[in-house]
Amino acid sequence: MNWLIIWPSADGVRENLPIAFRKRYSKAISTIGCFEIQIEKTSNASHQAATWSQYKSYNTIKYLISITPDGLINFISEEYGGRTPDSTIFEDSGFLDKLVQKSIVLADRGFKNISHLLEKHGCTLLRPPSESSNSKPSAEEVLQTKRFAAIRVHVEKSIGKLRDFKMIGLHACFLDNVVTIACGLVNLQNCLFSNQV
Predict the structure, then answer these.
(1) Which residues form the DDE Tnp4 domain (predicted)?
(2) Domain architecture of the chain: domains with CATH
(3) pTM of the predicted model, to two decimals?
(4) In whole angstroms, what separates CA 2 from the centre of its chain?
């Protein structure tokens, strides 16, 4: 089902750009996130350590997922242990090889220290403003965060559709294949986002 996970051309993405993206994110080619799947705790101590997710507080397998602005899953990485930082997966997964120059990639705050990697490829990273525990965000930062959250929800909806497949997580030894099949099936469903949204 790999053939159902395609990387469309920049022109193809722009032709299907939802209204919500057109004003501020018209050059966005991808919204990325990490998708974690809970797994059983293994008896091997090194595997336990590699798959422990501090964020989830249980053992997980993690994937980098990318969707186009209109909701098509256009990239899914191989599996990584839940302990692997998002930035490491981003650099190691082959995602950067898919990008064309002048592309914009949207990511959440978890993707720290990846701007320089995108800049080497002639691309730009957009993230919500950083939060500081010592200072109150400005009105502009609050507005930017809200706008960004409205766009970022798209990748969360795609991940939600993947979670609807109960087979994910049941077959740990074939998990990469199962996740690829689920991504292909999500892409076969109706478009997540109407052009009128």
Answers:
(1) 32-187
(2) 2-188 (3.30.420.10)
(3) 0.83
(4) 17
